[in-house]
Specification:
single chain, 609 residues, alpha/beta, Glutamine Phosphoribosylpyrophosphate, subunit 1, domain 1, Rossmann fold, eight-stranded antiparallel beta sheet, six-stranded antiparallel beta sheet, 36% helix, 22% strand, binds 5-amino-5-deoxy-1-O-phosphono-D-mannitol
Length: 609
């Protein structure tokens, strides 16, 4: 979604800002812009609809400025147009603002400003900010920003330039992340550490209701209410952010699919205790006596992370015998949920910035509940807000479609399940078996990816079809949901997922001659039931693409197209059966000419509601 970069130092600010924007491109956006203070003390700004490359072409005449702010916009208020792109300037062109988030009371603020004679040039909520800051400006940038933010309802991460203060950028946040990177004689601001990682690993995260004054020598942070705070420096690690490089792959999505043996391995590293048939996740800050007191687990997440939470909840219930369920965070947060004292909530999120998941976490915390994060991005808002949990360590996921983060989330939830299960009725022997099965997983993922089966034939079947149905039972149902989500978001093919047994209560009406049905039927406890369901759709003319366990000849013969996968225990099957579905979505998207890494309308990190 929207991205912010700010730079102050001795280099050409425009170049550094464009570089930063490029590193944020993966988040999804539709227009981009930059504002600089030139050596004469004037504001210079340029915006373009489309890619950062187009902005780059348009800034050929940028002044030799050493301070500036830049933005990639993902439209919320107002269409995808140049006037609506950021930065937004006040009428005197002395103040420039970039903004992530949503100003909810923008109509009232805009009406008031218009009645005072202010002329608006865009349809955005953001434009009220430069005009309000102008209104309150008496020579003190922080005082003007603070007075403005007192009037604002909603969420923001902002960066502000004042033409008459070319020595500072003022930034503030509420609900939209901002991080300051400290270099030697230069300082960078960004909404995502990915934009600054090449400059420095030394960062200061802003918290909600904080305001920062960024100069080439560093950063000064204050609370919006005037209290000061020490700017604690955090060292971010390379593994978490690494350089976003295709390493020979044509797309990040394909690269990330193929990284899964290593990303799963990283998630397991140092956490499995094979001899004890147990695991250790120190980040939960829970010893066995605390674990045994958990009476239920509720996983909260959105999209793919919700599907991972569903798998984790099933594992916790079946292996640890703890009542568990997953909930869509955007629904949970607004239904005044009951927060049982003995429940552990798990906030599952790749980015750690998803607004709906963060909102759900805050609701749990307000009600005195107990919540831990299952997060990929180190230092992200959800990780810092929960203060405990597990990093899934999948490494940076750049493609908008989540692939390796899903398998790492599921792996982390399985490790957690093993820990909880060992405090209950999982025996030492069964614990050892589970530990071994987890340790064997990366090799099985690798084996499948080396020889993925007839994916291209499946691609032909789904790209020619008006509708695709995904079916699965038990642990395979969340995988069916995940496969359908992937195919929708990457290939834009209409599809849906159903529990196999539920299919005859409605979706079977969609099946006619040749309709592709993607059936997940690993050799688990549901295998025989699945065969009956499979025959029911086959009898109605469906073209069956079946993902099944290697060596299951009966299923291979029943299928019109058989995709065999390595054998694993039931609870680990999602980590294997999801792989062909990821490849199917990728290759179908490619065959249909889609932008597979940046599908239309989507953003990597959904930081608005
Ligand atoms: O960063 P998060 O895991 O919290 O993001 C949640 C969803 O927005 C995300 O999984 C989305 O559904 C992906 N595009 C799926 O590929």
């Amino acid at each position: 979604m929207c991205g912010i970069v700010g730079y102050i130092g001795s280099d050409l600010a425009c170049e550094r800002l464009i570089e930063g924007l490029r590193r944020l491109e993966y988040r999804g956006y539709d227009s981009a812009g930059v504002a600089l203070i030139d050596p004469q003390g004037d504001l210079w700004a340029r915006k373009r609809v489309g890619r950062v490359a187009e902005l780059d072409d348009a800034v050929f005449d940028a002044p030799e400025a050493q301070i500036g702010i830049a933005h990639t916009r993902w439209a919320t208020h107002g269409g995808i147009t140049e006037p609506n792109a950021h930065p937004h300037l006040d009428a005197t062109r002395q103040i420039a603002v970039v903004h992530n988030g949503i100003i909810e009371n923008m109509h009232a603020l805009r009406q008031q400003l218009e009645s005072e004679g202010v002329h608006f040039r865009s349809e955005t909520d953001t434009e009220v900010l430069p005009h309000l800051i102008r209104k309150f400006y008496r020579g003190d940038p922080v005082a003007a920003v603070r007075a403005t933010l007192r009037l604002v309802r909603g969420t923001y991460g902002i960066a502000v330039l004042f033409a008459d203060h070319p020595d500072r950028i003022v930034a503030a946040r509420l609900g939209s992340p901002l991080v300051v990177g400290l270099g030697e004689g230069e300082t960078v601001l960004a909404s995502d550490p990915q934009a600054i990682i090449e400059l420095t690993r030394r960062v200061v995260y802003l918290d909600d209701r904080e305001i920062a004054v960024i100069s080439r020598d560093g950063v000064k942070v204050e609370r919006l209410d005037g209290r000061t705070r020490d700017a604690d420096i955090t060292l971010i690690d390379d593994e978490a952010y690494g350089v976003a490089d295709l390493q020979g792959f044509p797309h990040f999505m394909l690269k990330e699919i193929h990284e899964q043996p290593e990303s799963i391995q990283r998630c397991l590293r140092g956490r499995i205790q094979g001899e004890e048939g147990n695991a250790k996740l120190g980040g939960f800050q829970m010893d066995p006596r605390a674990l045994v007191r958990i009476e239920r687990v509720i996983a909260l997440g959105c999209g793919t992370s919700y599907h991972a939470g569903m798998v984790g909840a099933m594992a916790l219930e079946s292996l640890a015998r703890v009542p568990a369920r997953a909930e869509v965070a955007s629904e949970f947060r607004y239904r005044n949920p009951i927060i049982p004292r003995d429940a552990l909530f798990l906030a599952v999120s790749q980015s750690g910035e998803t607004m709906d998941t963060l909102g759900a976490v805050q609701e749990v915390l307000v009600k005195g509940g107990h919540v831990a994060g299952v997060v990929n991005v180190v230092g992200s808002t959800i990780a810092r807000t929960t203060g405990k949990g597990v990093y899934v360590h999948s490494g940076p996921e750049i493609a908008v479609a989540s692939t390796k983060a899903f398998t790492s989330q599921v792996t982390a939830l399985m490790v957690f399940t093993l820990m909880v299960a060992r405090t209950r009725n999982l025996s030492l022997d069964a614990g050892r078996q589970m530990a071994r099965a987890l340790e064997e997983l990366p090799a099985k993922v690798h084996a499948y990816l080396r020889d993925p089966g007839p994916i291209q034939v499946a691609v032909e079947a789904v790209t020619e079809a008006p509708y695709v149905l995904f079916l699965g039972r038990g642990f395979s149902y969340p995988v069916a949901l995940e496969g359908a989500l992937k195919l929708k978001e990457i290939a834009y093919i209409p599809c849906e997922a159903y529990p196999s047994g539920e299919m005859k209560h409605g979706p079977i009406a969609m099946i006619d001659q040749g309709a592709p049905v993607l059936f997940l039927a690993p050799a688990d406890q549901h295998r025989d039931k699945n065969i009956s369901n499979l025959k029911e759709v086959q009898a109605r003319g469906a073209r069956l693409i079946v993902v099944h366990t290697e060596g299951d000849d009966e299923l291979a013969e029943l299928a019109d197209l058989s995709i065999p996968v390595p054998a694993v225990p039931d609870y680990l099957s999602p980590l294997i059966t999801v792989l062909p579905l990821q490849l199917l979505a990728y290759h179908a998207g490619l065959a249909l000419g889609r932008d597979v890494d940046k599908p239309r309308n989507l953003a990597k990190s959904v930081t608005v509601e």
